[in-house]
Design a protein that fits this description.
mainly alpha
Length: 92
């Protein structure tokens, strides 16, 4: 079990900045940008809870969440609003 390190958090921070910038330049009225920002807030809330509860003895699941959980949260948060908005725009 490894302690919480800057290496784990730095990679996910770079991914979040990239996706927020990418979401900001999409021409969808800012919907994906807002989704990426909401997913970032949820992900950092989870990291904060992990840091408070298990700072020096992270499990493999904690490490996976810190490194890759943001992508899963983006998919979960973005799927339903995107599908509902797409359906509304295409089918009236």
């Amino acid at each position: 079990m490894k302690p919480l390190s800057l290496e784990m958090v730095g990679g996910t921070l770079a991914l979040q900045i990239f996706l927020i910038l990418l979401g900001g330049i999409l021409l969808d009225g800012g919907m994906m940008g807002r989704i990426f920002i909401a997913a970032t807030a949820v992900h950092w809330g989870g990291i904060l809870l992990i840091a408070i509860r298990r700072r020096n003895r992270l499990t493999k699941g904690d490490e996976f969440y810190i490194r890759w959980g943001y992508l899963w949260i983006c998919v979960a948060v973005a799927y339903f609003p995107w599908v509902l908005d797409w359906g509304r725009r295409c089918f009236g």
